[in-house]
Design goal:
single chain; alpha/beta; four-stranded mixed beta sheet; 2 helices; 8 strands; 18% helix
């Protein structure tokens, strides 16, 4: 599993839900405290669980600091990267797109991806890498 701390769970849900559902994740439901306040969002795909928790402060993520650099989601073809970009990414709220789908031979021959940031400035990518 992977757990990300975020500034605003409501904003995070509206950003991530369309993307994760398109990628085949399922909503496992929210974890709620004794007062009924949502503490954690949970999504799963296969045996992988992605959790989002309310951060204790609202400083945006800094890629250069110790910790998570970026999170990548693999798809099975270049066409799926393109479909994700046009069907989901350009419609997400508060998205900052670094690159539309692009060849990245500096990473690996055939590497094809789109790079973007969530509302907390966590860098994300959807990528296809040939076998």
């Amino acid at each position: 599993h992977l757990r990300l701390n975020v500034a605003d769970l409501t904003r995070t849900r509206s950003f991530y839900e369309p993307m994760l559902f398109w990628l085949g994740f399922h909503d496992m439901g929210a974890h709620v405290d004794a007062n009924g306040k949502v503490e954690r969002l949970r999504f799963s795909k296969g045996g992988f669980i992605l959790l989002f928790s309310q951060a204790s402060h609202e400083n945006n993520h800094d890629q250069a600091r110790i910790g998570l650099h970026h999170l990548s989601f693999a798809v099975s073809s270049r066409e799926e990267v393109d479909r994700f970009y046009h069907e989901v990414l350009v419609h997400l709220p508060a998205v900052r797109i670094e690159n539309p789908p692009v060849e990245c031979p500096e990473y690996r021959p055939g590497y094809y991806a789109t790079f973007f940031y969530d509302p907390d400035e966590i860098k994300l990518e959807v990528t296809y890498t040939p076998q």
